Amino acid sequence: MIACGLDFGTSNSAVGVLNDGRVGMAELEDGRTLIPSALFFDEEMHGRVLFGEAAVEAYIGQSEGRLMRALKSILGTSLIEETTVAGKRTLRFTEIIEIFIRHLKTRAEVFLGQGIEAVVHGRPVRFVDDDDAADARAQRTLEEIARRVGFKDVSFVYEPIAAAYDYERNATREEVVLIADIGGGTSDFTVIRIGPDRLAHADRESDILANAGVHIGGTDFDALFSMTSVMPVLGLGSLLVEKDLPMPRAPYDLLATWAKINFSYTPRNERLIAELVAEAAEPRKVARLQQVVRRRLGHRLAIDVEKAKVALSGEAKADIPLDFIELRLHVPVSRADFEWTVRDQTTRLRAVAGECVAAAGLKPNDIGTIFFTGGSSRIPAVREAIAGAAPEAVAATGSDFLSVAAGLTLEAQRRYR
């Protein structure tokens, strides 16, 4: 049975395949193995759907249509069965995810030159915090989608366990490792024994000592950063003239949250914002919000906030250009400001990592290595916080964006060889 490892991520996705007996990544877009988890329903081209970078570029180029991102984050929520207008069609969110997963499968089959019948799907430790029924529903939804796109056999592996298998390929000794997979939508942890002698074992259950996860990821950092840095220049924090009431947060929250951006563009929300402009003590600021919504610039705003976040991982200061809203408008930002903004989230990540170590029956100094993976693991404040759960451990990294897909493919090889 031909099998693959599929890492459907909140921000990016990848598919691993076995080619001549070796794990490799399928080329999904113009020779690239990593594809943004994005779709663009192009209204100018009679409902054509674009994927990945092509989807983002069409949106930024202001083609008429609708960009969809961060769809994984609504699995397990009440939104998943709701409908939305995409291009000229009304689709359920499950159907939109299906279109994207089908595209990944098709591209991987073209790369491999044959059909793929089985998939080992990655999944976070928790799709939904503190709700086992919703968490189970999320996996069931993803499995149903996988079967509809043509996979005959579907199984799941926690994403940090998959990353551990990838890390283990280069292990030279046995050790206990804390895997920290910090992605776009969730942060997941596994404590596992790895080593060259364990690599060939068919059953690894006894090696996996504990798992933990929390619904905090890069898109949450983006939303918080947007609310504190960008939204104030669009009127958040200003007052309404009558009774000096504060500007309501709801329209700003929609615009700052990747999975909710398209809900900003409803007639009801546009009417609300028009009323706020008329009632605002600083109408020029709120008029900027109105312009962003009218011109469907929400994702453009989110993309620039995300870029600034990424830049601050390497620099002390960055700038968020907003000249597409108003000439010469921009927001200077600093790493210190960003770290203050996300301090509650990084504190929570440290706590969950520590809980995972404790659940394994270990002390912090029993962890030899922390293996960081996932795009958000590059954020210095995130790494520093998680390192606090095992202060004596050595930090290790691999491919931040492809380790999970590679590990899923190794597991596919074991299950379907």
Rounded mean pLDDT is: 94
Radius of gyration: 22 Å
Count of runs of 4 or more consecutive helical residues: 13
Number of strands: 18
Describe how the helices and strands are arranged:
Elements (H helix, E strand, L loop, with lengths): L2 E6 L3 E8 L2 E4 L9 E2 L1 E5 L5 E4 H9 L4 E5 L13 E4 L2 E4 H20 L5 E6 L8 H17 L4 E6 H10 L6 E8 L4 E8 L13 E7 L3 H12 L20 H7 L10 H13 L3 H12 L3 H14 L5 E5 L8 E5 H7 L1 H17 L9 E5 L6 H8 L6 E4 L5 H14 L1
Parallel strand pairs: 1-10, 10-11, 12-17, 17-18
Antiparallel strand pairs: 1-2, 2-3, 2-4, 5-6, 5-7, 8-9, 12-13, 13-14, 15-16
Helix pairs in contact: 2-3, 4-13, 5-9, 7-8, 11-12
Describe the structure.
- By secondary structure, the protein is α+β, with helices and mostly antiparallel strands.
- The chain contains 13 helices and 18 strands.
- Strands 1, 2, 3, 4, 10 and 11 form a 6-stranded mixed sheet that branches.
- A hairpin with an 8-residue loop joins strand 15 and strand 16 (330-334).
- Helix 2 crosses helix 3, helix 5 packs across helix 9 (298-311) and helix 11 (343-359) runs parallel beside helix 12 (380-387).
- The protein is globular, with a radius of gyration of 22 Å.
- The termini are close together.
